[in-house]
Amino acid sequence: xxxxxxxxxxxxxxxxxxxxxxxxxxxxxxxxxxxxxxxxxxxxxxxxxxxxxxxxxxxxxxxxxxxxxxxxxxxxxxxxxxxxxxxxxxxxxxxxxxxxxxxxxxxxxxxxxxxxxxxxxxxxxxxxxxxxxxxxxxxxxxxxxxxxxxxxxxxxxxxxxxxxxxxxxxxxxxxxxxxxxxxxxxxxxxxxxxxxxxxxxxxxxxxxxxxxxxxxxxxxxxxxxxxxxxxxxxxxxxxxxxxxxxxxxxxxxxxxxxxxxxxxxxxxxxxxxxxxxxxxxxxxxxxxxxxxxxxxxxxxxxxxxxxxxxxxxxxxxxxxxxxxxxxxxxxxxxxxxxxxxxxxxxxxxxxxxxxxxxxxxxxxxxxxxxxxxxxxxxxxxxxxxxxxxxxxxxxxxxxxxxxxxxxxxxxxxxxxxxxxxxxxxxxxxxxxxxxxxxxx
Length: 440
Ligand code: SAH
Ligand code: SF4
Ligand code: F3S
Prior knowledge:
Elements: E1 4-9, H1 13-28, E2 32-33, E3 42-47, H2 52-71, E4 76-81, H3 82-87, H4 90-94, E5 100-102, H5 109-115, E6 122-124, E7 143-147, E8 149-150, H6 161-165, E9 169-170, H7 173-185, E10 190-194, H8 213-221, E11 228-232, H9 241-249, E12 256-258, H10 266-272, H11 278-291, E13 296-303, H12 310-323, E14 327-332, H13 350-372, E15 379-387, E16 395-399, E17 404-408, E18 416-424, E19 428-433
Parallel strand pairs: 1-2, 1-3, 3-4, 4-5, 5-6, 7-10, 10-11, 12-13, 13-14, 17-19
Antiparallel strand pairs: 8-9, 15-16, 15-18, 16-17, 18-19
Helix pairs in contact: 9-11, 12-13
The structure holds S-adenosyl-L-homocysteine (SAH), iron/sulfur cluster and FE3-S4 cluster.
S-adenosyl-L-homocysteine binds near residues 51, 196, 197, 233 and 333.
């Protein structure tokens, strides 16, 4: 019987992408995927370390792997991703039952390890290659990732990512286009370009192949069969007019921009080393509203950054009121090992963070619900993703604005349907669909 593997993924879309590569690589080695961890011969974790809660969630899972390994010592336990990279060889001291550990740039080493007769534990932590080169097993056949860069050159004082994913390296544009064409040929209708800072793409490429992020978007847009393009995450400091205009000009590029704010206070942004201030951020928002009036804007916000006063926090609330985000990911500041902010004076007490978080969520949801009402009465193009999670008699999909829609109708996953929206909440839209059509 074929050996079986199981992967548990934590963290961001980059990890989701990397896990698809792990699956693809193991499948091409003849392994099969087990639906339960207990049934697997190779137990893998793709880890995240962005906040303390991410670490602790993963450590609990690792305890279960330890138990399974003690039941059957021939099992292999592998730990990849950002947490592994940030603690490196310490993994083996703290968790002696781990057989192989590797960082985000060494996923291919997993195959090498599994093919070797090595009985000793191995760690691989030097960046070698993009996982985008590896075979993949996509979660949904009509949606694909395109990893355009690895790493981040920013020095945001709270963030562990530059130390886990390394310096920024962009992939060759022609290679990316070939990959986009292959995805389209394979039935992918929607691609998401991935990078820690997608709009600084290309800066370190050799001169003869150096293109800007906006040019890359235009090249992907020209690929036959790709009907929707998204990307994450851009950095406000690099959000140039050409990228914003591309949303109005390129038919496949969706009316949706995730623009991480982090804080509405310029003083806090400075301590975060974000290199923009509130005015510059609002200026980007104004430019988006000017060129793409209906564009959905979403964001990331941190509350309780060291030194954040009540007045600073109120400025964040003001920005939330002014922008009226379509949605926001909100985080309580979490001190991360070896980051500058972890040891800053004036750490905000926990109860204050919690109280601010509650107020922030109230404002975000209220504004998002108000904003979502603009869709009621409109007919929106929806890419069908499956059945509704809350009501199995309904279908679920996403609009170009990246809004989840639950609707009545008959269609297959991967088809486009027009849905007449009849109600909206801060999170989801509801409606009734017309019959499917093949392409937008
Ligand atoms: N590269 C992306 C996203 C990085 S991580 C970007 O710059 O936008 C995703 C989000 O996690 C960040 O935008 C930030 O809001 C949050 N985050 C990162 N480090 C954090 C920390 N130490 N505590 C709380 N939230 C954090
Ligand atoms: Fe982290 Fe800042 Fe880089 Fe985003 S831009 S990954 S928040 S250092
Ligand atoms: Fe986590 Fe690494 Fe992504 S720390 S958020 S998995 S880049």
